[in-house]
Amino acid sequence: MSKALPKRSENYSEWYNELVKRADLAEHSAVKGCMVIKPYGFAIWEKMQRALDDMFKATGHQNAYFPLFVPKSFLEKEEEHAEGFAKECAVVTHYRLKANPDGKGLIVDPDAKLEEELIVRPTSEAVIWNTYKGWIQSWRDLPLLINQWANVVRWEMRTRIFLRTAEFLWQEGHTAHATSEEAIEETEKMLGVYATFAEEWMAMPVLKGVKTPSERFAGAVDTYCIEALMQDGKALQSGTSHFLGQNFAKSFDVKFVNKENQTEFPWATSWGVSTRLMGALIMAHSDDNGLVLPPRLAPIQVVIVPIYRNEEDLAKISERANPIIEKLKSLGVSVKYDFDDKFKPGYKFAEYELRGVPVRLAIGMRDLENGTVEVARRDTLSKETLALDGIEDKIVALLDEIQTNIYQKALKFREENTFRVDTWEEFQEQIEKGGFILAHWNGTDDTEEKIKAETKATIRCIPIGAAEESGTCVYSGEPSQKRVVFARSY
Amino acid sequence: MSKALPKRSENYSEWYNELVKRADLAEHSAVKGCMVIKPYGFAIWEKMQRALDDMFKATGHQNAYFPLFVPKSFLEKEEEHAEGFAKECAVVTHYRLKANPDGKGLIVDPDAKLEEELIVRPTSEAVIWNTYKGWIQSWRDLPLLINQWANVVRWEMRTRIFLRTAEFLWQEGHTAHATSEEAIEETEKMLGVYATFAEEWMAMPVLKGVKTPSERFAGAVDTYCIEALMQDGKALQSGTSHFLGQNFAKSFDVKFVNKENQTEFPWATSWGVSTRLMGALIMAHSDDNGLVLPPRLAPIQVVIVPIYRNEEDLAKISERANPIIEKLKSLGVSVKYDFDDKFKPGYKFAEYELRGVPVRLAIGMRDLENGTVEVARRDTLSKETLALDGIEDKIVALLDEIQTNIYQKALKFREENTFRVDTWEEFQEQIEKGGFILAHWNGTDDTEEKIKAETKATIRCIPIGAAEESGTCVYSGEPSQKRVVFARSY
Prior knowledge:
Radius of gyration of chain A: 26 Å
Structural class of chain A: alpha+beta
Strand order of the largest sheet of chain A: 3-9-10-16-13-12-11-24-27-23-22
Distance between the termini of chain A: 32 Å
Oligomer: homodimer
CATH architecture of the largest domain in chain A: 2-Layer Sandwich
Strand content of chain A: 25-35%
CATH class of the largest domain in chain A: Alpha Beta
Helix content of chain A: 25-40%
Number of domains of chain A: 3
Number of strands of chain A: 27
Shape of chain A: globular
CATH topology of the largest domain in chain A: BirA Bifunctional Protein, domain 2
């Protein structure tokens, strides 16, 4: 059996890194800052993709694909956008290698220098809005509702698998609308889609809010976000949806003729979630034994382990297990029957725990005699012995129960770790302990910056729909009408 | 109504370009050599992806994701591989831009030069085999059966949408095996998967064969391929599967301990198909009216167009059409009900023809009275009037019939355009007319090269399973035991 994981309580960061590695989710590649997503990790990402893609299509969006490269001059067009991304751009300058005239190997061919440098997309607003110029002429072309699944590159010096990597996978929605109202509605709708996905699929409660100006996406008028609380008390931004106003339309000279025959600039949104969600999923639920996966995203929902001494026993167990497997599959449950004899049952149990398989069934010879099966839940680590007859429906119900339980547990954790704080002393004390802090803020960049410098806490969001409440800024003592959410974050 | 397409018989190339544009499949982007895949085109690609992905998983493969960037030193490790791709590499040399000190805009920051240049992957053997070093130690780790869906970049000077672009989308399988036999079996199995996909989904007959040494993938021991014949008599290589021997294992020092406790190098394969298949699909079946899509890959399989004068008529038609639509959907048919009143039925008919929708139903008021519907087939352009009652099952059967008919038509075309040629005069004459030429070849690179120089014909493949047949090389007159397939190609 493999060595135990580090404990969350002792070294959360080490626990995360080891878990990612041991559960075979991903690894650092030899290419600096880039990760390799391993098959088991990728299978979870595929489930996320499928669910999100279905939700995007159900809300009227279509997928398309735009170039990997952004010419430097495109990126420059929207000034804030350019400034925001300039420092983390991978730049293609040449298009050919040649044999090294001085010996072995290849060198960059100096004769193959590009006239204009190409940036590996850090995001695609520039290249997409340059394309939309050809797609949008009339109000009839609007709304334009497009999504892209792609890889993007943002050069990061300090990387962490899934949470911050130079290359990551994501989807980016880019829409164009005839009116500001409609674009804002879209921005909020997609934030809602992300929140629903986080809660119903990832079993992860999220706060919906708006970013302060200093935390906005470069080029956006408003950035909406969902924020989740990890088990170490840090916040993780899990998705953003931007109202871009007419900024990109103006920068790329995209216009349309409205129903009144007047020329206008369309209104834009963009929104994205990435493989960062994998990090969120891992950190939200997992424990010191390994991954805890919500059943809706688990590549293997149920594993069946036969306990046998010889081929004859195995044949008898399989005879009883096979119809159960077939029935479960027909009910849409993904099942693995692990009769591999290279490993002992105890080893297998630990491995499936490590990998977060929600339900484990063990069937031995005595079970066959008694018509029973041992059912183990990954979320509670509890076991019970149930009748084999009719087990399939019980498992389907159990998977639902586990999905709900994981969500409720995370919700309870968040509730217990959300604090209303009214004094600066209390703020400083609480931020060391972690959690979401609801506090008043005077609304200035200056205060936000000072709080960050002194405590490493940032405003995660101004919550949507929070009640108006008179109070005084926790830092400046100035009046405030609303609490905002502070936390340290990933 | 939009202008008619150019005719295939007059300008095939112009016909293709216009069709890609008018059917809203894709367009050239402002980024040199890169394309934008538009939503309708992407929807077809998604159907291809889903079908292929299911087939890969059914044959035991798992998806994973590897970095976009290949360090130059990795690419250099397998010499032939390096040589083959050096001339078409996009090279990242810097990781940051900065404000232009001389004025507006951004410049590449000279202080942010990479120590080692990164190549945007033209293919991933190098980065994947470097990773496999950590994944393969024992025979228990084999076979390793991995696939990746990704974008790749090969710098092309003369590009053509879908057929040859600097960036394209593809999948690349990379497997490792304990024995040469098993790796060759895998190479052939995946070629078979591609052939099945081409024939059963794309309705496109393909020849299966092996490439001559001069046409092998850089770094492969053997390259297998599927070749299809386009309507202009040119061949299109539609997929390749490579047996890589131990070349990459040796270059990246990947070893395993076999069952006899000896250290060995594993055997490798790689195989890929790309968005080039979109070009193949378009060129194999479409006609002067537009796209012809096989139903299994059509994003919209059936369009229903109501013919009405006023809202009242429309309501009556919809009342009859809605249950048909529901029934069709429940049978797994994708249906669009186009009651848009911005366009006249004639315009709509032409548009859906252009977009290759396999079946069109038109329902007018007289049809309602008579209980009939006009059913138009895209493949034959024929129409018939059928009873509305029970139309759903007829449509399902019709879609199957169209799928088969499109395949049969393409197969007939290929058969009529495949020629056995025995003299050089005949060869020269026939190659001008197009088609596959089955001819004897003496097996030398030299002859192959001369034939290419004189006629632009290449050996598309040495067909698998072709009968031995004594003859003389069509060019050199030397003895030969087998015919190979020549053609001009894309």
